[in-house]
Amino acid sequence: MVAKYVKFLFLIFVVLVITACGNEDEQVTENETEPQEVEEVEEVEEVVEQEPAEPEFEHVYPFTGEPTNEDIDHRVVSVMINNAPAARPQIGLTKADVVFEILAEGNITRLLALFHSEQPDMIGPVRSARPYYFNLADDYGALYVHHGAAKFIEDMLKNGAADYLNGMYYDNDMHLFKRGDLRKPPHNSYVLFDGIYEVATDKGYDITADHRPMTFSTEEEVSIQGDAATEVSFDYGSSNNVRYVYDGESEKYLRFNGQEQSADLETEEPVQLDNVLILETAHAVVDDQGRREIDLQSGGKAYLLQKGKVQQVDWANDEGHLVPVKDGEVVPFVQGKTWINVIPNSPGLAEVTIQ
């Protein structure tokens, strides 16, 4: 009996143990967690917009004040350009950095154009030499290109007054000078720019130079003084009226001879100027051909046109450069192209009309 009772208790114990193990397995199974998939988060780099860097330029053109990465050691070229009515409109004039307009004989002006930052294929019509033009060319360090000269003027050049190329010795050789078909001599001689440096080298002239720069303000420094001037005009003579009209959109002056706008014969591109200096000085007729001597040394009164404004200044010869001066200080030119009109001091600035 006791044995049966013991056996019975043993069976109950076994059942309890098995049940407990089963519950433990279920508990483990229920409590087990399957591994969770972790979503990968892509790291997004924050893009910070950089302000465009200011362009860095290595050089500044000496006769426009404009920055460039082009080499600037080539020598400036000056060309004696015909401005008689029969010679207008000219070719290449819109590319000149600086133009001097001065009376030659009678009431007809000629133009001394300096080419450095731009080099047009062809320039002209080219005319004969005058001392005050080639003296200016030499003062600015330029090669002087002309076509013809009186013997005494040619002798001055041969004796070293300036480094010159005379088209009379290269007339229509198609390498340096060519004759145009649209006009008759002396209004049809044109210089080919590609030949200038080669012929100058053959003559032993330097074709590189470290030019003394003109005085320019930077864009940040521009502060134009003066009164509004949308149109300025004056006469070199009864048939030679010059006008400058300010174009507010381009902020440049357009030039007119009478009613004819100054533009390129081939491209029809207008002459557009950033600075106009109108200066008065003494003129004297010295021979029966009407040739003149003109005082470009003593200084005097002038008008300076910039950005639609005009101011009365003085002018001075600063080591060969003709510059505007106020209160004893050089007034900077605005970066860009410049035209300098030399007019007789009688009647001088009194005859300049400003609107």
TrEMBL record:
Keywords: Signal
Pfam families: DUF3048, DUF3048_C
Entry keyword Transmembrane helix: no
Database matches in InterPro entries: DUF3048_C (IPR035328), DUF3048_N (IPR021416), YerB-like_sf (IPR023158)
Signal in keyword set: yes
The DUF3048 domain, residue ranges: 63-205, 233-340
Name the UniProt record assigns to this protein: DUF3048 domain-containing protein
Signal peptide: 1-20
